[in-house]
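#structure-requests
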Amino acid sequence: MADSKEEILYQLKIEENRALKSLTKVKEGVKTLDRRTTKYKETVKEQIRLESQLASIRKQRIQVNKGVEKSVKDLTKAQVQKKNAVGASTSATLELGRVLSDMPYGIRGVANNLQQLASNLFFMSKATDTATGKAVGFGGAISRLIGGLIGLLEYL
């Protein structure tokens, strides 16, 4: 779709340049004509037509540029949301690693990190919900975290 918008912009720019060139020729022709002749009147009509055509082309370019600008803004917003979701997943995974590494120290070692793990999982579920537009929730965050770990075990 981006290629078609670029092509449209190029075509509009070419049409605008052609219209400007024609308009310049017509304006030069008007200066040399006598105001009483029909040729003068026809040339003035042609000048008015070309000016309105040029204005129309410029309006089209503005509309296409606004569409491109909106697309870029939407893309940037989506990228920021995805970045936040990945960061939240990374921190939840890191905290799970801390919980697992404290297992040899018993319940006191694990309990020390559970609150942070839970808050990271809630943040991860919220960030994922925002990025995907789907309600994953806390259970979905846990299942995705475990699924990601199981997926990594395949490579070991």
